[in-house]
Amino acid sequence: MPHPGGPAPWRADGQDQIDAVVIGRRNRTKTPIMVGESKWTREVDAARLCRKLAAKTTELTGSPDDLAYAICARESVTNAAPDILTVTAADIFTPDPL
User: Fold this and answer.
1) Least CB-packed of 6, 52, 70, 98 within 10 Å?
2) Furthest C-alpha separation in the chain
3) DSSP 3-state assignment of 33?
4) Once rounded to an integer, what is the mean pLDDT over residues 35-47?
5) Does residue 91 fall inside a structural domain?
6) How far apart, in whole angstroms, are the C-alpha atoms of residue 95 and residue 98?
7) What single-letter DSSP state applies at residue 59?
8) Tally of domains in the chain
9) Is residue 97 part of a domain?
10) Is 80 a domain residue?
11) Domain with 28 in it
């Protein structure tokens, strides 16, 4: 849950870091709509990272299930549910043919 009356008590060790947060508007209020985790390893397990990411989002929103999730890896993202956005370095750095 967000902390009323003040900022969230983020841990100094960085273990609650979220790599990306997309902010949108719902009912004229700015709110997080997507969160993402990026790892520079060859392969990541999306289901495992999404569970960890959902636990971190409790400081952002009381409804982690309402968020969209994005998982990024250098070469491969495995075990991703169909509603998870997966991105690899090739997706970003390979030019589209004209």
Assistant:
1) 98
2) 52
3) strand
4) 96
5) no
6) 9
7) G
8) 1
9) no
10) yes
11) 20-85
